[in-house]
Design goal:
four-stranded antiparallel beta sheet, globular, Speedy protein, about 10% strand, alpha+beta, two-stranded antiparallel sheet
């Protein structure tokens, strides 16, 4: 049986081997990339402009409600609670997940826990400079046996990327317009603190943060900068304010048109080559 070291040895090279995700910065997305996600109050099948082709999607209120219900799923909600610093699930990453669901053509039945975590991982691949943090998704999505299952999870990510036509870029403008559909929902209040933005130099890393994925069965990491345990308390389901009409399940339902267009200075640190690296 393969050991943790054996099974994870090549994960850092997995993307390169398969020509996978190429990172970009948030400023890259602000320019309004092709297939941007734009929300309108009118139904538009397709929008074309000179030199640009965009595909238009209809967003129904039941889809937004299904997504919000997914965020209230016990495991997903606890995961968001644990990420109090919003390092891997801030409001923009959550908006990207919804954009991926629409680009993939998911029905509301496919708004599932595993699809959420797969899409969130892809969003982190696209947006985040820090590789370590997103590995926390594995134990939440896959359970205690995540070490033996994460390769399959990465293949699911690849399939999602292919399903959305390799259009994993979602601009800030697009995210803002997704959030504007129901701006009062608690998930859109997940603002990442300034001190958790960008890459962290090795000498600035918290020596108590070994980088090992903790999951739902371990004590959350104590964030000294935020002076709190990773416990999400800035918004709760009680603060939800619905702006979408209750609508119906019929074609008369309210709709919205969307154009989807390190070397740490610590004694040891977990990395995804499957071992603790000691200095």
């Amino acid at each position: 049986m393969a050991t943790l070291t054996d099974s994870l040895e090549d994960i850092s090279n997995f993307n390169n081997k398969h020509g996978m995700i190429h990172k970009r910065t948030r400023r890259d997305s602000d320019s309004g990339a092709e297939n941007d996600l734009v929300v309108h109050s009118l139904k538009v099948k397709r929008v074309k402009s000179a030199g640009t082709r965009r595909q238009s999607f209809i967003v129904k209120s039941k889809e937004m409600k299904a997504y919000f219900r997914l965020l209230d799923d016990s495991v997903v909600f606890d995961f968001l609670n644990a990420d109090a610093c919003k390092r891997i699930s801030d409001k923009y990453l959550l908006a990207m997940v919804f954009a991926y669901f629409k680009r993939a053509g998911f029905s509301t039945k496919e708004f599932t826990r595993i699809n959420f975590f797969v899409a969130l991982y892809l969003a982190n691949d696209m947006e985040e400079d820090e590789e370590d943090y997103k590995y926390e998704i594995f134990p939440w999505a896959l359970g205690k046996g995540w070490r033996n299952k994460y390769i399959g999870f990465l293949h699911k990510r690849d399939k999602l990327w292919m399903k959305i036509g390799y259009r994993a870029v979602v601009s800030k403008k697009c995210c803002d317009e997704v959030m504007a559909i129901n701006a009062g929902h608690w998930c859109w209040q997940r603002e990442r603190p300034e001190h958790h933005t960008g890459a962290i130099r090795a000498y600035k890393r918290d020596p108590d943060d070994d980088g090992y994925p903790r999951g739902p069965d371990s004590t959350p990491w104590l964030c000294k900068q935020c002076s709190q345990y990773t416990e999400y308390d800035s918004a709760s389901p009680g603060s939800i304010s619905w702006y979408l009409s209750s609508g119906s399940e019929s074609s008369q339902d309210d709709t919205y048109t969307m154009n989807l267009s390190f070397v740490p200075q610590v004694n040891s640190r977990f990395n995804m080559e499957g071992m603790y690296v000691c200095w």
